[in-house]
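Researcher: Next sequence.
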Amino acid sequence: MRELYTVGSIGCGTILPMESSPRSVTWEAPEHHHVEKGNDWFFALAIIIVALVIVAILLSDTLSALLIGLAGTALAISAAKRPSIISFAVTVRGVKVDDDIYPFATLKSYAIDEESPTGPQLLIKSARKIMPLIVIPIPAEHIDEIESILKEKLAEEDLEEPLFMKILELFGF
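Model: Next structure:
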């Protein structure tokens, strides 16, 4: 890494080293961990959805039958779709996920989970009520650089992915 220098104001011509930590780290990754689903998975989903629709019709609840059918179709389409590749960045100003920028003023703390079965991930606790935890996949070779930026701006805290997300990953979502 090349070291940058700037002219300081202490004395005449004193040269002081600039900050040695990186100013930003950028990478690209899939937007979520994708599990390839076989025909058996979709067949099981279809059996469950059809059974629920039949139960709703037998109970004279056609609106629920319609909603269950639509939800099952949307679930199947969503499960078959491959994740798109998006860009991520951790800079001295904040965290960037595709086109969304989260300034450090809106973030509370962070944790880096290197032991996740899907690969290393960055967990960021946000001040937002709707999306309180941001989970970002990170490449193993950039963990130290990302942590050096984040430790200057945020507190490190023990954070875990919610149980509901772990259950969804268990079922292949």
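Model: Residues 1-18 have pLDDT under 50 and may be disordered. Strands lie at 5-7, 15-17, 24-30, 85-91, 94-97, 100-103, 107-113, 121-126, 133-137, 155-156.
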